[in-house]
């Protein structure tokens, strides 16, 4: 479903990946661990095609980084759910609207938008906050809104870049438990983190560590 073929990436004289081969299969929960600056975010950006390999290619579903046209990248992104450390909610829209936005761009009908947004908010346990503004929510609640936004299009893959990086330990556990629940329903998850105690909470996960410009599977 995701396949890196001989991927090399560098920024100027700063090498990040050298000849990386890496596959993620349907339904897997995969952690990418590694110290700051090792390339976790770069790896996720390659998957949502925010950047492209200098050598080799990345295949995500039917999308191939070596062939994709710029105008088709939004179609790839609609098939993915992306969650960031800093939530990236729109401050001037309420919770419902933040989640609905991803559906408006697909041209979904109002009734369908309503149903899907309420389902996603129920999934993350925030139905009661649908009319609140982001600033009225705790950090953990804001991240759950971001997760609702990520799942509302029923993606086949969720990419999470240190989604618990701004959260306290208990709230981080809530978020990882939520991602586990989403994964159990069949959505693949690739999560970047350097928090090994969180990694241990996902028993069936595959764990890769970035070292020597490559990935080493450690579990
Ligand atoms: N657009 C860019 N231009 C130049 N260098 C970059 C760019 N993006 C990333 N880098 C460099 O690539 C390396 C990997 O960065 P990346 O952001 O992927 O690390 P990371 O593992 O996500 O780190 P962190 O844990 O701090 O988020 C770093 O040395 C970074 O400075
Ligand atoms: Mg990063």
From TrEMBL:
Keywords: ATP-binding, Cell cycle, Cell division, Cell membrane, Membrane, Nucleotide-binding
InterPro entries for this protein: AAA+_ATPase, ABC_transporter-like_ATP-bd, ABC_transporter-like_CS, ABC_transpr_LolD-like, Cell_div_FtsE, P-loop_NTPase
Keyword Cell cycle carried by entry: yes
SUPFAM superfamilies assigned: P-loop containing nucleoside triphosphate hydrolases
Protein's cellular compartments: Cell membrane
Pfam family, one: ABC_tran
GO cellular component: plasma membrane
Molecular function in Gene Ontology: ATP binding; ATP hydrolysis activity; transmembrane transporter activity
PROSITE patterns documented for this protein: ABC_TRANSPORTER_1 (PS00211), ABC_TRANSPORTER_2 (PS50893)
Domain (ABC transporter) ranges: 2-218
Topology of the protein relative to the lipid bilayer: Peripheral membrane protein
GO biological process: cell division
Job description of the protein: Part of the ABC transporter FtsEX involved in cellular division. Important for assembly or stability of the septal ring.
Family of this protein: Belongs to the ABC transporter superfamily.
Assembly with partners or alone: Homodimer. Forms a membrane-associated complex with FtsX.
Protein name: Cell division ATP-binding protein FtsE
Originating organism: Candidatus Thermokryptus mobilis
Gene: ftsE
């Amino acid at each position: 479903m995701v396949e890196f073929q001989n991927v090399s990436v560098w920024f100027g004289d700063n090498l990040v990946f050298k000849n990386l081969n890496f596959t993620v299969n349907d339904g897997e929960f995969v952690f990418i661990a590694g110290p700051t600056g090792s390339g976790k975010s770069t790896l996720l950006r390659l998957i949502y095609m925010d950047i492209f390999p200098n050598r080799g290619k990345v295949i995500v579903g039917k999308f191939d980084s070596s062939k994709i046209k710029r105008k088709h990248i939004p179609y790839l992104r609609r098939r993915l759910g992306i969650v960031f450390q800093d939530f990236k909610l729109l401050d001037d829209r309420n919770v419902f609207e933040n989640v609905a936005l991803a559906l408006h761009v697909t041209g979904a009908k109002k009734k369908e938008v309503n149903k899907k947004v309420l389902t996603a908010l129920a999934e993350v346990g925030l139905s009661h906050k649908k009319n609140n503004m982001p600033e009225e929510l705790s950090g953990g609640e804001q991240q759950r809104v971001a997760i609702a936004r990520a799942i509302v299009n029923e993606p086949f893959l969720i990419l999470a870049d240190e989604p618990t990086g701004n959260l306290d330990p208990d709230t981080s556990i809530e978020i990882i438990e939520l991602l586990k629940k989403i994964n159990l329903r069949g959505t693949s998850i690739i999560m970047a983190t350097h928090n090994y105690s969180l990694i241990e909470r996902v028993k069936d996960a595959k764990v890769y560590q970035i070292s020597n410009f490559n990935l080493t599977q450690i579990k």
